[in-house]
Amino acid sequence: MVSLTDATFDEALAAYPGLLVDFWAPWCGPCRAVAPVLEDLAHEYDGRVTFAKVNVDEQPALAARFGVRAIPTLILFKDGEVTERAVGALPPAEIRKRLDRLG
């Protein structure tokens, strides 16, 4: 799982054709609940999708750039473009379904 900042975000978008970004904060209970699920899925989708995190407290400009108003927010990118976004701690099966649509 890659941690992204304002300085590294656009570089990551260009470098990874499939990218799931978790916008989160350490004080957020649902964020902490979904974190181990995302860690497991990162291993399962290794080589197909890169998983990244953005701490909204430390990177408020990135949260604003993507209209993140509630956390956790998961945003999927394909070739640098947003393809899906979801708010809340989704069950693993729902995240898998969205990742599989990413291609």
| CATH homologous superfamily grouping | Glutaredoxin
Question: What are the secondary-structure elements, in order, as H or E?
Answer: EHEHEHEEH
State the separation between the terminal residues, measured CA to CA: 19 Å
CATH topology: Glutaredoxin
What is the overall number of helices? 4
Query: Biggest sheet, strands in spatial order?
Result: 1-3-2-4-5
Strand content: 25-35%
Uncertain segments: none
Percent helix, as a range, is 25-40%
Describe this structure in words.
The chain has 103 residues and is of the alpha/beta class. It has a single domain, classed as 3-Layer(aba) Sandwich (Glutaredoxin). The protein contains 4 helices and 5 strands, in the order E-H-E-H-E-H-E-E-H. A 5-stranded mixed β-sheet has the order 1-3-2-4-5. Helix 2 (29-44) links the parallel strand 2 (18-24) and strand 3. The protein is globular, with a radius of gyration of 12 Å. The chain starts with a strand and ends with a helix. The model has no long low-confidence stretch (mean pLDDT 96).
